[in-house]
Amino acid sequence: MNLYDTFDADVPTIVLAEGEFDTAGGKTARGVVLHSELFDARAVVDSTLAGSAVGEVLDCEGVVDVPVVATVEDALDHCPEAEALVIGVSPAGGELPAAWEAEIRTAMKAGCDVVSGLHEFLGEQPEWSEFADTWGSR
Prior knowledge:
6 helices, 138 residues, single chain, alpha/beta, 16% strand
């Protein structure tokens, strides 16, 4: 899938980086926040760093102060116009951790499309496809 064919530029985005934003495991999340020309990161979800901002966590100047929050619900409170949730970490084995399922469902219920590079293709699983169809997300 070509994301540029799927999304308009600067789509308001929440980045899920639970427990990994400031580690090597969070490199995709950091790349989206710092360099994406497609996704406009408005909040990062990482409960271990909640209450901080991206500039503080990464110790870099010139970064728009994107908040780091504890949950997707907190991110939606900050950015109700979010249209996408990017899964910005790759857990061991590339499989979706069960603990993230509720977070992803919360985003989908709010109309966010889910962008994932996991080895587990959510769109190919009937449970996730049906849920997305119900809530009008992808």
